[in-house]
Amino acid sequence: MSYNIAVKSQLDARELLILEQEVKNQGKNMVVAYILWYFLGLFGGHRFYLRKKGSAIAQLILSITMIGMIVTCIWWLIDAFLLHTWVKDHNREVEGRVMDQIMMQKNA
Length: 108
Description:
Structural class: mainly alpha
Distance between the termini: 25 Å
Radius of gyration: 18 Å
Strand content: under 5%
Number of strands: 0
C-alpha cells in the first residue's frame, strides 16, 4: 500500500485522472459484488465476478445437493464479511498495475 502512495505522489494531474478512470473501468464495484452475493451467492455468483473461479465452481457444485446446500449457506454468510476486502484488494492490484504502466510510459 505504501508503494502505491509513493508512486501516486509522482504522478501529475492528468496521470491521476487516467489512473482513476482505468481503476473504475477495470476494477470491481462493491455494490455489484454485494448484489451478486445476495441474489446469486449460494451459486457462487459473487466469486465468479471477483474471478475466484475454483471456489465459485465448488459452491455451484455443492449447491446441487442438500447437504452441500447447508455448507454453502454457511459459506455464503462468511463471504458477506470477506467480500468488502476482496473488492478492495482487487482494485488495489488494478491500481498498482496501471500505475506501473504509467510509470513505464513516463520513463520511456
